[in-house]
Write a structure and sequence with these properties.
Strand content: 15-25%
Number of strands: 8
Radius of gyration: 39 Å
Structural class: alpha+beta
Number of helices: 9
Helix content: 40-55%
Strand order of the largest sheet: 3-5-6-7-8
Order of helices and strands: EEEEHEEEEHHHHHHHH
Distance between the termini: 95 Å
Largest sheet: 5 strands, mixed, barrel
Shape: elongated
Length: 327
Amino acid sequence: MSAKELSVLRAGVEAKAGADSPTTAGTEQSGMPRIPEELSILPVRGLVIFPGTIIPLTIQRAASLKLLDDTLPRTKVIGLLTQRDETKEEPTPQDLYSVGTAAQVLKLLRQEEDNVLVVVQGLRRFSLRKIVATSPFLRAEVDLPESILPPASKEWEATLRNLRDSAARLFELAPDAPEQARLMILNIESPEQLADFLAPNLNVDFAQKQALLEELDVEKRVRAIQKQISAQLEIAEIQQKLQKDVASQFSDAQRRAYLRSQIKAIQRELGEAEGGGEEQAQQLRARLACDETGRARIEATRFHSSGQPGILRHCQLHRDHRRFALE
């Protein structure tokens, strides 16, 4: 999952994600604050904020701090537009995408004189209609386009169910994904809200996420997200299989080590030192060497099988000589 990527933006980035990962909450139209026709525009870079997303942003640029000071006493709703080029310190309207998200400022924490942390929640998409001011910060008249839903059908229902199941499985395999996220996926009924919930967590760059934000056809948006989730799910399942294989091999090694330790313990209980098997073999060989008759028979058999009858007769005479001496 890529929720953490929003909190790993480089130092000094304007309106960058804070230390916490973003979450998403379904936005109810009835409880949504009124969105003015004219919005103060806060440029953000390195991330795209979708409707429903709740995320902390660090504000450092002078123009953006001025925006908060002038706008928040009148309205808590501002416009968020992503920069095309992250390196621009003072972006112009041409440096910003034309479609963004109207957001409500939920909390403001002034950490230092030139460093403010705000927590915002995305409300809905907007598009720029007309720039009305560029100084001391950007202000623009905006339109609020409506998303286009496909007609109800069994195929559309199956598409949504497939997206829910794939996303729930992906969140299940993600070690850092909260259980609440999986439950929310299964309980979100609105196709548009489901797509906007999943889009921020895709492992794609912000330009691809911006394209999803700009897509008003919900069916196309859902299918694009499904494609990305299917690819991520395939990778996650392969990783899980590799982890299980490694864990299984490690368990086998542990089991063999345990059995070896048990064998050594049994040998110690029986009074056998390590390497006792070799000592027993040496003792048997010594006993066999002392038994001349047994030794002669073994040698005779061995040499007879090797086709050396002369040596066999020598062994027989040697044995007869020993028997004569004993008598």
